[in-house]
Every structure is written in C-alpha cells, then in structure tokens.
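Retro notes
What went well: the complex prediction finally ran end to end.
Inputs used:
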Amino acid sequence: MSGFHTAMELVLQGDASLYAIVRLSLLVSLSAVVIAALVGFPFGAWLALTRFPGRDAVIIVLNACMGLPPVVIGLAVFLLLSRSGPLGSWGLLFTPQAMVIAEAILVAPIVAALARQTIEDLWLEYRAELEAMGATPLRRVGALLWDARLSLLTVLLAGFGRAAAEVGAVMIVGGNIDGFTRTMTTAIALETSKGDLPLAMGLGAVLIAIVVAINGVVWGMRSYGERKAG
Amino acid sequence: MRAPASDLPIVLAAVGVRAGTQDILRDVSLVFQPGAPTAILGPNGAGKSTLIRVAAGLLQPSLGSVTWGGLSAKSLQRRAIVFQRPVMLRRSVAGNLAFALAAAGCPRAHCAAAVERLLARVSLGALHDRPARRLSGGEQQRLALARALAREPEILFLDEPTNNLDPAATKAVEAIIRDADASGIKVVMATHDLGQARRLCGDVVFLANGAVVETAGAADFFSRPRTEKAAAFLRGDIVE
Ligand SMILES: Nc1ncnc2c1ncn2[C@@H]1O[C@H](COP(=O)(O)OP(=O)(O)O)[C@@H](O)[C@H]1O
Ligand SMILES: [Mg+2]
C-alpha cells in the first residue's frame, strides 16, 4: 500500500517528468486518432455506399485488420523507417512521429470498419427517402455522416482506446527514450520491470483517469446530441 | 423562363414487376390524369405500394413502359412521395424540412422562410425544434407530408397516409391532402380506408393480386361496382 501512496503523491505534486510523459502520450494518441479518422471515415463511407466485385473480401480483410497485432505493426514500421529501410532517409525512427505513424496504422482499420458498418446501417434505413427527395450523391453522403455523427464519435472513442492502451508498437518504433519518446504505457512497462512500482502505479492511475474522463466527455456530448436530434 | 413541361398524364403501358418468380404487378395499363385525387384500392399485398413506386419513377418495371407527360426518362423533380412508413431523419422537425428543401434545390436564402411556411401548412409550427423521431405517428405523417410538399410537386403520391392513425390525426392528414388538391397538386393515394377514398377521391383504381381489376369514377365505383371482386371488396369480404 505504501506504493499506492507514493503514486498519489507523484500525481498530486504535479511531478514534472510524469506530466511530460502524460502530455506526450496524449499528443501521440490523439494525433494518431485524427489521422486515422481522416483516412478511415472517407474510406468507410465509400465502402458502405459502393458495390463492386470483391467488396465482401475487402470488408472481411478490413474487419480482420481491427485485430492486427501491435508488435507486428511496430516491427513493420520499424523496418520501413530504419536507416536501411525504404523510408530510412526520413530519419523518423525513435521519434514521436514514428509512434504516431504506427498507432495511426493500428487505429485506422478500427475507424474504417466501424464507420462502414454504422454508415451502411443508416443508408439502408435512409435510402428510399434520400432517393425520393432527389438528394445528389454528395448530399446523401453528407446526410449520412452528419446523422451518424454521434455513433461515429463512439467509433473515434474505440480508436482512441486502442491508441492510448498501445504499448508494443510504440516501444519498438519509439524506443522508450526518457524525456523524448517515453509514453505512459512504455514507462509503466519499464518501471515495473525495474521494480519502481509507485511510479508505474501512478502512471497507471493517470492513464485510467484520462481514459475515463474522455469517455465521460464523449458520453455527455452524445446525450446532449441525442436530446437535440433524436 | 419557360415553364417546365408537365409530368401529366402518367401512362403505364402493360407494366409488369417481377421479384424472383413472383409477379407483383401483371399487365398493368393505367393513365393518371390531372384532376381530383385518384385512390388506389385493394387488399393487403395487392401491389398498391409497388404500383405507386413504379408510377413515381422510383422502381423500374420489369416489363412494359411508363411515361410522364410523354417522356420515358424524366427526373423526379416534379413528383413527391410519402412512403407507407416514412423515415424521419435524425434531426429536428425544422432540420428535416430544411434538408428536403435543400435537396429539392431551394436556394439557401429562401430556406428558413420556406420551412416556416411548410410547418404552418401542416400545423407543426410549435414543434419546430423537436427531434423528428420523438413525434407521434400523426405528427410524423404530417412532417412527411410537409417534406413532400417542400418539393413543390406537380404530383403527390401517398402510400396509406393514415394507416395506424386515430380519427383526429386522420382528419388532420386529410385536411392537408384536401389543401394540396385545392392548390392544384395531383394526388395519387393508396388506401385501405374506403371512407377516406369516398371523402377525398374522384376516381378509383382497384387492384387485386397484382392486376388492375377495375378503374372507375369514385361515385360509380362505390355505388355500382362492375366486377364481382370489387363488389366483394366493398362488402368487406376477403378478396384473393
Ligand atoms: N422487393 C420485393 N421482393 C419480393 N416481393 C415483394 C417485394 N416488394 C413487394 N413484394 C411482394 O409483392 C406483393 C405486393 O406488395 P405491395 O406492393 O407492398 O402490396 P400492398 O401495398 O398492396 O400491400 C406482396 O406479396 C409483397 O410481399
Ligand atoms: Mg403497401
């Protein structure tokens, strides 16, 4: 229990190195979610609304990608960015940018697959009305994205959850460098293995508090939106 | 600016609709003329909804042809439809109308005023900001009518517009239909409700089992049906 007290002290005293780690973790996770959304929402919407041969296979592969093993993605990004790799000249290995890339690759399939399902369900419901209203394809997509926005917010949350909890990939491509690429999850792994349980527990508590707080905010936005739009 | 050519008459020539091995409509030949509302009557499953979707241009028939004002391929622009189960967009009442107006090409600057005018026309002004999905059945039906009227249609197709509504809500919907008719819109409506067809309609198309059994003026149809099937339907017997 003394470990727990030390953890709380670190949090409450606003320990500088702890907050630097928290800030970097949030920055990396949120950047990854934004990039994944920019790619995943349009792709999911397109997949929901088009029919082509092999579409079922694309959906199966996309859904399977939701479960990509993070360490494998980490390894792939590592090979791409390593000095002798194809993108080695970018010099991104062991930087926060590399971690954003790896997490975006992990999160994008989640965003795309869940958005595809959400938008397709709404399309089945709206289709006849939108056609009868003479809505152009662009207007149809706009209506679907807008009217599904509360569900799509939850999709982003699922993506953020994966990014924030991720440890294997960011460890490989970020390198867990103190003060530069150390995130909450990699720090917890390191401190635990070193035996510094108070710091590990303090970080764990902060991580959970942040995830709960973000879920709370999104929940509030959803209920407000549902009251307004039904 | 030249007025756009009329979509009337709508002429269906030997129209057939087939789903798998089932004929939903068989050899339907009909003309919808300008004038008083036309009732499409018939038992459940007769093909009323399918006929409406074909005549509105939303469903391509498997056989035969449909023309609107003599043309076979015309945009939906002058037609509007209220489905048997209208789907409310996940928006406010006003949001639903604004979307319908925008989709119909109403300029943004006129939109807000048009929303208010349409809401007044269907007596929903007080529910302006209410989420459309929280409305009662009768209110949703009136909003669906307002969305259809937002298209400023020449022809308004209604699929059982008062199904499942209580007498007061039915009366409100019928008032809107009368108002649309009085403003020169051609109404074509499927209905179960014989009283409603009597009250509102000038002529009748009686469908059974995917085929037109009888077409007649409403007064003639209700007083002297020419076919045994129509007579049985009017008596309330089960018609196959
Ligand atoms: N897309 C479809 N596929 C197969 N059968 C259909 C389809 N649409 C309608 N039907 C069938 O066609 C018949 C007529 O349907 P409908 O036009 O809805 O009749 P009504 O509106 O008169 O009750 C019904 O038996 C219905 O089950
Ligand atoms: Mg029907």
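What we learned: DSSP finds eight helices and nine strands in chain B.
What to try next: split runs per interface for comparison.
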